[in-house]
Known about the structure:
By secondary structure, the chain is an alpha/beta fold. It has helices spanning about 5-15, 40-45, 60-65, 95-105, 140-155, 175, 180-195, 235-240, 250-255, 265-280; strands at about 25-30, 35-40, 75, 110-120, 120-130, 160-165, 195-205, 220, 260-265. It folds into two domains: about 15-55, no CATH class; about 60-285, 2-enoyl-CoA Hydratase, Chain A, domain 1. It is built from ten helices and nine strands. The longest helix has 16 residues, at about 140-155.
Amino acid sequence: MNWIKNFVRPKISGILGTKRDVPENMWVKCPETGEMVFYRDLEANQFVIPRSGYHMRMAPEARLKHTFDDEKWTDIALPDVVVDPLKFRDERKYADRLKEARAKADRKDAIVAGRGHIDGLEAVAVVQDFAFMGGSLGMAAGEGIVTAMFEAADNKLPLILYAASGGARMQEGILSLMQLPRTTVGVQRLREAGVPYIVVLTHPTTGGVTASYAMLGDIHIAEPGALIGFAGPRVIEQTIREKLPDGFQRSEYLREHGMVDMVVHRHELRATLSNVLHMLMRQPTPAQAVQLPAPDEASQPEAVPADTEA
Length: 310
């Protein structure tokens, strides 16, 4: 029994009565280089490791915060769905897993949607939370995405979707797979409304999500180094019994082979989204909207009198 961990620390936490707003481990290790970064510094750098440039995962609230003007947005209410429709159980009950995930994330499922402005242009943004059961696509997530798409279509607003998922949620079986065509219908509604649909592919975006709405955008933007594909590289290698090329299924490889339109660093992502949306919505960009000073009247050419001769 660890006396300090099991007795002293709980006593101190009870006396202080405050909730930590940072992880217990205040240092984060870079998965690529092993560099240790202080959490506050990483948070201030939009969760990008300063030296290596490795893009860590971001919580949905942080995504929306760095997307919308003045870090303000209005949450879009997402509908409730039936919990555990198949009464699924493996090592544990699915209902228990879902309850634990909801308590940890303090949200109902892996989808968060908000409505706000990007450099004055109103838009809808949807974020998948990979920390919630791997960002898996189930009934609740599918319903949330469709609701946000219909919100954007009905109000003639562009939609940005930040994809991060391991695929369909196996505990919901066919009901999970049915979200693939349902979200495709939502994409079609956006096209009928004539509004842009921009997909930002983050690490990782795999499985049925990649096979549906994540690859149906008007423009696909990927973060550097993100894993994007249907089946994972290890499964593909075992299936074809061949060694895959270096960087296979990564953002840069997919851009070179025409699967994504651009790879954008997270620090430049908001400006890129703003320029793309203003262009597609045929609105002047912030730089173009700057009013030029009125020309001096003295510099105006004199009016030429009209010819009065018959």
